[in-house]
Design brief:
The protein has 92 residues and is α+β, with helices and mostly antiparallel strands. Helix content is 14%, strand content 13%. The protein has two helices and four strands, in the order E-E-E-E-H-H. Strands 1-2 form a two-stranded antiparallel sheet. A hairpin with a 2-residue loop joins strand 3 and strand 4. The longest helix is centred in the C-terminal third of the chain and has 9 residues. It starts with 14 loop residues before the first strand and ends with a helix.
């Protein structure tokens, strides 16, 4: 349904015919860690995340999995090479 509380005009999975069914009945504003994310949108009452109703919960444990401004570091672990097996591979 279309939100009628804070994000007016946007589709919201928490909207029902009786109003917002999210915890507290409203979405929460973005936190400081969300600065620079493309999902943050300004509405008449402040900045809100378009993907998550409570961004502080996403940042509670670590990085937000929806954040567009954070790039995940690829782990490049070099496997330990057994020299005996490597010499056998070269001879084949």
């Amino acid at each position: 349904m279309v939100c009628t509380t804070i994000k007016q005009g946007r589709e919201c999975p928490f909207m029902t015919t009786t109003g917002c069914s999210y915890n507290g009945g409203i979405c929460h504003q973005v936190v400081e860690q969300c600065n620079g994310c493309d999902r943050g949108t300004e509405f008449s009452s402040g900045w809100y995340c378009t993907a998550c109703p409570d961004p502080s919960l996403k940042w509670k444990i670590g990085n937000c999995n929806l954040a567009t401004h954070i790039k995940a570091a690829a782990e490049s672990s070099k496997a330990k090479l057994n020299p005996l097996k490597a010499s056998k591979r070269r001879n084949s």
